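Run log // design_07
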């Protein structure tokens, strides 16, 4: 399928109510400083024909822009710009970049094609968020939106957020609430779903002497592809039942969650794929992002805007760890809980010291650091219970979702229909061909993949 994109217009959508003087400078937090300097795109596809108000495209465009303007009056940092010191955001109502485009194909034709080639979804990402140089990143708005219309009226919505400004929780919450404002016509003075004081509770610091640059290796030369795997509720229950023997024997001392089970199988499959490629079992490091909201003693609200996530490092050592499923489940549970416990109590300074030491052990160590090619690294992230699939702008729920820039081995879990879970897996082409044929994955998904 040859897709041609035609850009129609680009503008800046500004808050409908000017940001008050006392909010003109939004302070970033210590955790904002830890985030990678990149944009995180979320892509939602909506078919035509589900428009609750039966309004035409021009009216929908107007509702979309006006509702974005209203919600920016509340989420004012998203309409600002990073300051020169990178420790705050100048909130002068500069605006969110909003681009409208159209593509030369029917929505259903594209959806049928994308089931076989998920890479086609990348076509709808804004061009100006990819491969940003350092200076360009500072000048790029914290949020970039692109709405692309298909010939039949269906749309692709890309909402990309600057990671140092907001994490996945903040981004997805923003999109969900924006959809509500658009569909229901909620006025600006009634929008209130986030707090904006994290930078006061855990302020930004001079990291030059206490923390290494937190950068995941990005392999731009490699060809990455993505596939989706669907795991239904019955399969998850069956997998949990298989672990009953380990619980009965005392080898597993807790009932694992569905996310822990799926993470264990994905990770074990990746380790086996690496073994097949290299001819020996290698060390493996999983970065598992943990949302710390509601899990620590600081006076932080659970709806705090910004970054409040820690990458819990989970380490597999062939000489130390076994390959049974319950061994992986236990390793995942213990590692994630260790990361949470390290931040659960103590002062702001205690938390900063703990997080800094934890990351130093990984990012600068010879054994596990980013320069060590003898360690396989990946991100496995759970987006379950986040409300993206219910983001209804008045056109119904999205029929397809896509995450990430696809430049690192990654697995993204999110809720699908009827209690099932969808996993978007991003791997190098040579890894994917082995991964999708791995016995665990074939049994795990029962052939349900796209």
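design_07 sequence
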């Amino acid at each position: 399928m040859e897709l041609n994109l035609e850009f129609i217009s680009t503008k800046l959508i500004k808050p409908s109510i000017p940001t008050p003087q006392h909010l003109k400078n939004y302070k970033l937090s210590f955790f904002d400083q830890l985030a990678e300097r990149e944009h995180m795109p979320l892509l939602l596809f909506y078919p035509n024909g589900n428009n609750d108000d039966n309004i035409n495209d021009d009216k929908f465009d107007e509702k979309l822009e006006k509702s974005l303007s209203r919600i920016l009056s509340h989420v004012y940092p998203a309409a600002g710009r990073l300051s020169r010191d990178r420790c705050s955001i100048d909130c002068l109502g500069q605006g969110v970049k909003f681009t409208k485009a159209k593509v030369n194909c029917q929505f259903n034709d594209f959806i049928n094609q994308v089931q076989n080639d998920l890479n086609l979804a990348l076509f709808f990402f804004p061009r100006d968020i990819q491969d940003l140089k350092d200076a360009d990143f500072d000048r790029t708005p914290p949020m970039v939106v692109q709405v692309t219309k298909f010939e039949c009226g269906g749309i692709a919505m890309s909402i990309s957020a600057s990671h140092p400004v907001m994490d996945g929780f903040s981004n997805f919450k923003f999109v969900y609430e924006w959809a509500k404002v658009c569909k229901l016509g909620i006025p600006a003075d009634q929008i209130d779903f986030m707090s904006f004081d994290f930078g006061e509770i855990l302020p930004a610091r001079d990291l030059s002497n206490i923390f290494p640059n937190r950068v995941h290796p990005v392999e731009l030369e490699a060809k990455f592809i993505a596939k989706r795997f669907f795991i239904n509720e019955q399969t998850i229950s069956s997998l949990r039942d298989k672990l009953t023997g380990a619980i009965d024997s005392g080898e597993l001392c807790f009932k694992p969650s569905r996310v822990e089970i799926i993470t264990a199988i994905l990770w074990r499959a990746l380790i086996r794929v690496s073994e097949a490629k290299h001819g020996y079992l290698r060390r493996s490091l999983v970065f598992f992002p943990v949302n710390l909201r509601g899990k620590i003693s600081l006076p932080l609200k659970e709806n705090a805007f910004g970054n409040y996530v820690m990458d819990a490092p989970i380490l597999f050592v062939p000489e130390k760890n076994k390959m049974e499923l319950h061994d992986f489940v236990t390793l995942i549970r213990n590692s994630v809980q260790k990361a949470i416990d390290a931040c659960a109590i103590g002062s702001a300074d205690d938390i900063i010291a703990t997080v800094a030491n934890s990351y130093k052990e990984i990012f600068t160590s010879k054994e596990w650091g980013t320069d060590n090619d003898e360690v396989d690294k990946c991100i496995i992230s759970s987006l379950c219970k986040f409300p993206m699939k219910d983001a209804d702008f008045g056109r119904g729920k999205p029929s397809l979702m896509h995450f990430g820039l696809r430049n690192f081995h990654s697995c993204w879990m999110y809720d699908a229909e009827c209690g099932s879970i969808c996993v978007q897996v991003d791997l190098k082409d040579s890894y994917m061909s082995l991964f999708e044929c791995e016995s665990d994955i074939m049994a795990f998904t029962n052939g349900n993949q796209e």
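The first strand starts at residue 5 and ends at 13.
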